[in-house]
Specification:
Pfam family, one: SBP_bac_1
Largest sheet: 6 strands, mixed
CATH class of the largest domain: Alpha Beta
Number of helices: 16
Distance between the termini: 19 Å
Helix content: 40-55%
CATH superfamily of the largest domain: Periplasmic binding protein-like II
InterPro entries: SBP
Oligomer: single chain
Family: Belongs to the bacterial solute-binding protein 1 family.
GO molecular function, one term: maltose binding
Keywords: Signal, Transport
Length: 441
Amino acid sequence: MPRAVSRKDFLRLGGVGLAGAALLGAADYSGNLGGNKVVKFQTIAEETSIQERAAVEIQVDRFEDQYPKYAMERKVTLSGETSTVSNTNKEMQTTLQSEDPPDVFSYDTGPGFGGVLAEAGLLRPLEDAYENNGWDIYEWAKQRATYNGAVYGVPDQVEEIVVYYNKNLVPEVPETVDELRQMANELRGREIIPFAFGNQEQWPAGHMFSIGVSNVLGREGLDDILYADGRWDTPEVEEAINLFFRDFVKRGYYPGGLSALSYDGANALFYSGEAAMNPTGTWLVSEIVQTVQDFEVGFFSFPSIQGSGISPPAGVGSGLFVAEKASNPQGAIEFIDYLLEESTARLIIEKLNVIPAHPVNPKGLDVPELFKEVLEDLSESPQAKSFGYNIDVLAPQNFNEVMFTGFQEVLDGTRSPAEQSAALQDAWATAKTQGKIATQG
């Protein structure tokens, strides 16, 4: 989930709050702190200030307590609310090519994100680290950080894309799109926005597309496109595009000016009760729990589209990578190993409400009720046949660029669903010819 492109406007370094927002590539790391060897960790801000404080305690204070030979410099970077995924990739490459790159950093997995950095020679292979430390990452998740046959990353977050809903405004979960339309029409009649959806950063449209094609094609249909000879320019894909990016727009189910509305702005409409439903990822649970006070929140998978199956997108979001030019690669490896320890992983689940990409004993976990429901929904693993895919994590960079910019045009009415599905197929065929399509794990 490329959610790293829109974060709260603040910067933290080692737990000390600094005014303003930082651009990716602006990291400024110094040498040893107090004689200890520095580990430079670049990440993104957590969803809430409470989570951010917890992250600092876990990723800095607790790590330094258990590994006193190291001093952790934790750098939180932002790329601004208007940044696109393409810009973020370029900015990350600039950061890693600088004279003072991070040792370890958090970034999205998949060939269109981590794979781009690996292809540019900016990442260290981690096969030896996996073997020496016995990292028990789910094999399917590990494949998301494997590029050209080499493992470069450690997936650290499993996600599902669902539809959150205000139980005061949506008393029953719709089972079909017709029921959903009827509900949305009633909400509009009460001057309530049916869906909180903003696409200023463009990647939210990619998530909506993932919901649609996972639904109409199912897991097997997507596998046929992703790993065999299936195509994107089909009537089913066009139908999904038309539903989310033309039909719902014409019916007024989204906020006005959605192409200029940020992801955070859309979330705010849901929190305030101005919007009844919010299609986004399970990473938002903690913010919802801490922000929403006036109503109860539930979630459901997008209902069947004309009799199709219900296959919510799920898979790996972010992962941890070690820079090729890291000044302290050993410290980076030890930091990752620390995060994967059972006791640390349990803290991360409880404090950050993150679903790890490796086995953790769930007994006795203290988590919010909404997060418990998410854990139960993903209990069979997101690779179960009932789940679809979050497409951008599996797709190459050129496909993602066509996806993000193209859907903006479909939303604006300047490109048809048929034209977009054809453009997606062309981009996919090009990437396939170039050998940039991910292999099946």
